[in-house]
Design brief:
Elements: H1 5-8, H2 11-14, H3 20-28, E1 34-35, H4 48-60, H5 62-68, H6 78-90, E2 100-104, H7 105-117, E3 123-128, H8 132-139, E4 144-151, E5 154-155, H9 157-165, E6 170-173, H10 187-200, E7 203-207, H11 223-226, E8 238-243, E9 254-258, H12 261-274, H13 280-293, H14 296-319, E10 325-326, E11 334-338, H15 345-356, E12 358-359, E13 361-362, E14 375-379, H16 385-403
Parallel strand pairs: 1-12, 3-4, 3-6, 6-7, 7-8
Antiparallel strand pairs: 2-9, 4-5, 8-9, 10-11, 11-14, 13-14
Helix pairs in contact: 4-13, 7-8, 9-10, 14-16, 15-16
Length: 405
């Protein structure tokens, strides 16, 4: 008898859908394409010589080298967790290493949190738009998404309050340089978000992937820092997700969860059942790299990405039609476009790649309700300023032609 594999696969797994971004990157890698699609760091900014020295130094030290090749504890290396705790404290978030779990990138953290807190039919509040990777992680648990709109200051509090009043008790939010829009919350809006969550006893999942990539203005405290818990390691409204992927190197796959101890204890059990622990040698290298390279390397990244952002915004100011609007991010890697209502960004992408040799990500994929057909995400991270300018000019010309059809 032939196995009917589609019937064997459980509904949770069948809920997964391919990532539009992953599929798009395969095509956008062609050298003739100016790609604003991938939300990935610029590989030219990876500190290769430093990493070479750190790997050589680690493996040439017999005791440290053998330790780095061995199994380790599921929570993550104590030294690395202490570095993260100390770094959080600098921004006002006082947490102990027992509040921190090392994960295989922030994406694994999203997956584990989804399996911990979500189940079929449970509601989770999402910004509109929101990070596609989070929705992929959450979708396997088949929750009900409750989308709330954003304004220039952050999520609309009346909508957040209404979502919690209707029964939702979890919200996934990105207050700093959000993927995909690049927007950040004001301090007043951050305080209002926390006040609203506490009013209903709701959990805030704070994605802090881009918080270190600030290019101008004052850095605002995270929701975690504002969620004052005193000396109680078991208390808190906020679970924060962090990563070295945007500031050191994605291939290290070093992320972390900062959460109250009851959450961490359960996640550790899940980690033990899943993959035991994150690569020991990668944790050792991440600790050495963070200790040696920060804060100087962060300044290098900020200077480089600031120049790229300025190139993109300058080109958009010069070339885009008046009926195209776009965000003006103060950090991160993304600019968010809103096109005229008559332009579907998915259809535009097909023509852009064929005629203008430019790639971007259609915005509809970032909406939990599949709205936003006339929106798009542009990343300025990997292209050179001169190619950014050329690509925006070509695309603006295409948009102007379509708008006049």
């Amino acid at each position: 008898m032939t196995i009917q594999w589609n019937e064997m696969i459980v509904p949770d797994a069948r809920a997964l859908r391919a990532s539009e971004i992953r599929d798009l990157l395969k095509v956008a890698e062609r050298p003739e394409i100016i790609s604003f699609a991938g939300g990935v760091p610029d590989p030219d900014l990876f500190p290769l010589a430093d990493f070479r020295d750190m790997f050589d130094g680690l493996t040439s030290d017999e005791t440290a080298g053998r330790r780095s090749l061995q199994y380790s504890i599921s929570e993550g290396l104590p030294g690395l967790r202490q570095w993260i705790a100390d770094d959080l404290a600098k921004s006002g978030a006082t947490r102990d290493i027992d509040n921190i779990l090392i994960t295989c990138g922030a994406q694994q953290a999203l997956d584990m949190i989804a399996r911990l807190l979500l189940e079929p039919g449970r509601e989770i509040v999402m910004e509109k738009p929101s990070y596609l990777g989070a929705m992929q992680a959450f979708s396997m648990r088949r929750p009900n998404y409750v989308g709330i709109n954003m304004d220039e200051d952050g999520p609309v509090i009346a909508e957040l309050d209404a979502a919690f009043a209707a029964g939702a008790r979890i919200a996934y939010l990105a207050p700093d340089f959000q993927n995909p829009t690049g927007r950040s919350y004001t301090l007043d809006r951050r305080m209002a978000v926390l006040e609203t969550a506490r009013k209903y006893g709701a959990v805030i999942l704070e994605d802090a992937a881009y918080c270190k990539l600030s290019y101008e203005g004052e850095s605002l405290p995270s929701l975690l820092a504002l969620d004052e818990v005193g000396s109680d390691p078991d208390a808190g409204t906020v679970i924060q997700l962090g990563t070295f992927s945007k500031t050191l190197a994605p291939a290290l796959r070093i992320g972390w969860v900062t959460a109250p101890r009851p959450v961490i204890r359960q996640l550790v059990l899940m980690k033990q059942a899943g993959d035991l622990h994150v690569s020991t040698i990668n944790q050792e290298i991440a600790l050495r790299a963070a200790t040696k390279l920060f804060p100087a390397h962060l300044e290098t990244l900020r200077d480089a990405y600031r120049a790229k952002r300025d190139a993109m915004l300058g080109a958009m100011d010069e070339f885009m039609p008046d009926d195209v609007s776009y965000s003006r991010p103060k950090g991160g890697m993304f600019v968010w476009l809103t096109l005229p209502e008559n332009i579907d960004s998915r259809a535009l992408l097909v023509e852009a790649m064929e005629d203008a040799k430019v790639a971007f990500v259609p915005g509809q994929a970032f909406f939990c309700d599949q709205s936003g057909q006339n929106t798009a995400r542009f990343s300025f991270a990997t292209e050179k300023p001169e190619r950014i300018r050329a690509g925006i000019e070509r695309l603006a010309d295409l948009i102007r032609r379509k708008d006049n059809q």
